[in-house]
Specification:
By secondary structure, this protein is an alpha/beta fold. Helix 2 runs parallel beside helix 3. The chain has two domains: 134 residues, Response regulator (Rossmann fold); 61 residues, Arc Repressor Mutant, subunit A (Orthogonal Bundle).
């Protein structure tokens, strides 16, 4: 029996996932969390084989949660679920220690396959990500500018695009305004941009925010 934890801030999503997994005799949902704090505590205190984690949580970025989880429970496979296109986040998830990435519009059968794959120690990637990973081995491939950003810079980029002020971003990330200002400067430099408006336009065009 594959014991599954679900971490998603939407009750309807958790209910749907529980219903889908309940249709498989080899799977059982053993716990649910609706924020990052609960997810970390649940993972530490519940025996489980896989954690399904939403990449967009209300109190912390999914990538940050993933890094916390890998420090606390390094052997627990984490399968990320997201509304964002696979190509935009999946590589960062794998680099951060995730076992796989699946969009929420994937069919139930694919979700079950992904869970079984990561539960046995494998990595789950969809066909689009497989193509992307293959292309990264090509010497002269032109990578989009946002892939030059660190995970933290990428996080700040998305928050700026959502209209957050530097002060608001600092509060969300528990960092100083000066630090956030430094991240913003690095983002503008790496992406050859001059304003928040350019950042916002870019993230919309590349589907980096919902």
């Amino acid at each position: 029996m594959i014991r599954v934890l679900i971490a998603d801030d939407h009750v309807v999503v958790r209910h749907g996932l529980r219903k889908i997994l309940g249709e498989h005799s080899d799977m059982s949902v053993v716990g649910e969390a609706n924020n990052a704090t609960e997810a970390l505590a649940l993972a530490q205190n519940t025996k489980a084989d896989v954690l399904l984690l939403d990449i967009t949580m209300p109190d912390k970025s999914g990538l940050d949660i993933l890094k916390d989880l890998k420090r606390a429970k390094p052997k627990l496979p984490v399968l990320i679920l997201s509304m964002h296109p696979e190509a935009q986040f999946a590589v960062r998830v794998l680099r951060a220690g995730g076992s796989g990435y699946l969009t929420k519009d994937a069919p139930p059968e694919e979700l079950a396959r992904a869970i079984r794959k990561v539960a046995t120690g494998g990595k789950y990637v969809g066909s689009l990500l497989a193509e992307q990973l293959a292309s990264m081995t090509e010497a002269n491939i032109q990578r989009p500018p946002h892939e030059k950003l660190s995970d933290r810079e990428f996080q700040v980029l998305r928050l700026i695009a959502q209209g957050k002020t530097l002060t608001e971003i600092a509060a969300i990330l528990a960092l100083s305004v000066k630090t956030i200002s430094t991240y913003r400067a690095r983002i503008l430099d790496k992406m050859n941009m001059k304003s928040n408006a350019e950042i916002a336009r870019y993230t919309v065009e590349h589907k980096l925010i919902e």
